[in-house]
Specification:
Elements: E1 7-11, H1 16-27, E2 31-36, H2 39-52, E3 57-61, H3 67-81, E4 86-89, H4 104-132, E5 135-140, H5 144-147, H6 153-172, E6 178-183, H7 191-195, H8 199-209, H9 220-231, E7 242-243
Helix pairs in contact: 1-9, 3-4, 4-6
The structure holds nicotinamide-adenine-dinucleotide.
Residues 11-12, 14-18, 36-38, 41, 62-65, 90-93, 113, 117, 140, 142, 185, 187-188, 190 line the site of nicotinamide-adenine-dinucleotide.
């Protein structure tokens, strides 16, 4: 087991990629804090982990854009399982809109959930990592943050910013035993993507699959495995990197 005895906080773990990561981390021996804006989903994922794993999990509701709520989350997590050693900043939202349709409120929410949320959660756990001289911060970018994405300017801008934040912190904490990396998923097969939400969504998926050299979407397990590698001791010498499971899309 690669994460035995470690406490891991995963934001946005009530569904999708964060849920898969929470499950895998628990299988690898971590005590898992499942944080999500949806209390129902956070608790459901934690309950599922507690039913199937020896490692415990706790589900806590949080809006990562709210400083007090993030600090309260970390306090609650610490009293349950001790200081956070692994943070996966995964909470995110998606929105497909032309630039002319993006309202200032859309823009602000996109920036807040991805950038401010990543900042606040990292800020809340980093002092304990410094004290322990050990820590893993894993941020969530996207191929959109590297290539840009049409009808997706606010999302792509936020994800590109996360890469800058990741590299900066990697430099700042390189001598503190803390690694800071980002995972930038390509197109990942989620129930919503797989079923499609109508002909327009199917067209978008087809468009991307034809540009993926492997001609297939990734799975949540592919992203969870990348998170596990970066969280583990195997990646002790890896920092400031953007690991992008994408089927060759960026080659
Ligand atoms: N699925 C993909 O193809 C893909 C590709 C590239 C990047 N990503 C990124 O991966 C991450 C996870 O995406 P996913 O596909 O699993 O999406 P998802 O919608 O299944 O999961 C995101 C989770 O974040 C939670 N969340 C949203 N706002 C929050 C907030 N303010 N505070 C706390 N929790 C909040 C949601 O409730 C949800 O459970 C996101 O950052 C996303 O941008 C996904």
């Amino acid at each position: 087991m690669r994460l035995s005895g470690k406490t891991a906080l995963i934001t946005g773990a009530g569904s999708g990629l964060g849920q898969a990561t929470a499950q895998l981390f628990a299988q690898e021996g971590a005590r898992v804090v499942v944080a999500d804006i949806s209390q129902r989903r956070a608790q459901a994922v934690a309950a599922e982990i507690n039913d199937t794993n020896a490692s415990p999990a706790i589900g806590i509701q949080v809006d990562v854009t709210q400083r007090q709520a993030v600090n309260a989350l970390v306090d609650q997590a610490k009293s349950a399982y001790g200081p956070i050693r692994i943070l996966v900043n995964n909470a995110g939202i998606a929105q497909i809109k032309d630039l002319l349709d993006i309202t200032p409120e859309d823009w602000q929410r996109m920036i807040d959930v991805h950038m401010k949320g990543t900042f606040l959660c990292t800020r809340a756990v980093i002092e304990d990592m410094i004290a322990a001289q050990w820590g893993r911060v894993i941020n969530t970018a996207s191929v959109a943050g590297m290539t840009g994405g049409p009808q997706n300017a606010h999302y792509a801008a936020a994800k590109a910013a996360i890469i800058g934040f990741t590299r900066s912190l990697a430099l700042e904490y390189a001598r503190s035993g803390i690694t800071v990396n980002a995972v930038a998923p390509g197109l990942i097969e989620m129930p919503m993507v797989k079923q499609g939400t109508g002909p327009a969504a199917e067209k978008v998926v087809d468009f991307f699959i034809r540009r993926i050299p492997m001609r297939q979407m990734g799975t949540p397990g592919d992203i969870a495995a990348a998170h596990l590698y970066l969280a583990s001791d195997d990646a002790a010498y890896v920092t400031g990197q953007v690991l992008s499971p994408n089927g060759g899309y960026l080659v």
